[in-house]
């Protein structure tokens, strides 16, 4: 019998779902190399390879056979071929631009463990999709709002969430879309550098975000009385500001967010929050030319920078802080702890803080490969994001469950079975 690759699900799976990979028809204890490849929509190639030895029966099941040293990962890692994918172009991050098309994953099995691949023994391809069948993608151009709404299958209403990304701008939809697959109505909201929105991030007005909150609160498919907010990086401090000043927010989850206003002046009615000060002298640039910016921001606890601290004690919602303890973008754990202190000092509910050692800044949905360094639009050079690939991958899987459990609990009133991993 010729060797073949067996996948489950066979042809197509959702990107945040595990994929079972096995090779059958090999010789007893045969040594092979498994290579996975994926191209993003710009054509850039991501690859991972691992060295294996088949069992006595000629079967190689990644759930039972550990990868041997010398490849992109080692040990028992059934999803290693996905999370260990690395860009062939330096400083390139895997993002999904069009959620309506899947990523195509190529799997190849080669003879032996050489530096150069041996004879090709088997090949397969698999679609990693973002939209579950029946999820509706609705472009939103209501008033000033530039967004995309994802609605789960069925009649609804569904618990509603606004999803915000960081300083990269534009309108990333992939996290909102994957979350909608799990039963949430999610609005991916652009706030700059998209269509007719401002090109730069000099000044942001909370009235724009208020329009989006009201849109969700009034939507017939969104279950009230309040909605959730999910933000990563700069999107995190925007969510804290929304929760602090706007009505109708029940639950706010931040992924490596800040509790101080960062990067742009924030205005709302007669209130102005200045951005936290930056000292470029504290940026360290290594031999590789990659900048470490973790110490660049001033502390929001001292001097005039205290004016940047967002008054989150005004919020009438529950908070969840997801923290990568190796975040090199800024001090996410410090921000989470200071936010918690501020809330408790004002008699508010203590937030949930879930910390992940070995996780960097870009905590994405499960199985996105870790991005160690990439271009930072505001810094103008590649910066390090931190993280160790395996620990980061495990953090992404757990954080995804924590976020869903948090929103289910606070937006539907249904408790869920996941336990906090501190």
Structure description:
The chain has two domains: 4-129, Immunoglobulin-like, CATH 2.60.40.2240; 136-411, 3-Layer(aba) Sandwich (Rossmann fold), CATH 3.40.50.1820. The chain starts with a strand and ends in a 10-residue tail after the last helix. Helices cover 18% and strands 30% of the residues. By secondary structure, the chain is of the alpha/beta class. The chain has six helices and 24 strands. The protein has helices spanning 80-83, 174-180, 206-218, 234-245, 332-345, 389-412, and strands at residues 4-8, 12-14, 20-24, 31-39, 45-53, 60-61, 86-87, 103-111, 120-129, 136-140, 147-151, 158-164, 185-189, 203-205, 222-232, 249-255, 265-268, 271-273, 284-285, 291-292, 318-324, 352-356, 373-376, 381-384. The active site is at residues 233, 327, 361.
Layout of helices and strands, plus pairs?
Blueprint: E1 4-8, E2 12-14, E3 20-24, E4 31-39, E5 45-53, E6 60-61, H1 80-83, E7 86-87, E8 103-111, E9 120-129, E10 136-140, E11 147-151, E12 158-164, H2 174-180, E13 185-189, E14 203-205, H3 206-218, E15 222-232, H4 234-245, E16 249-255, E17 265-268, E18 271-273, E19 284-285, E20 291-292, E21 318-324, H5 332-345, E22 352-356, E23 373-376, E24 381-384, H6 389-412
Parallel strand pairs: 2-9, 12-13, 12-15, 14-17, 15-16, 16-21, 21-22
Antiparallel strand pairs: 1-3, 3-6, 4-5, 4-8, 5-7, 8-9, 10-11, 11-13, 17-18, 19-20, 23-24
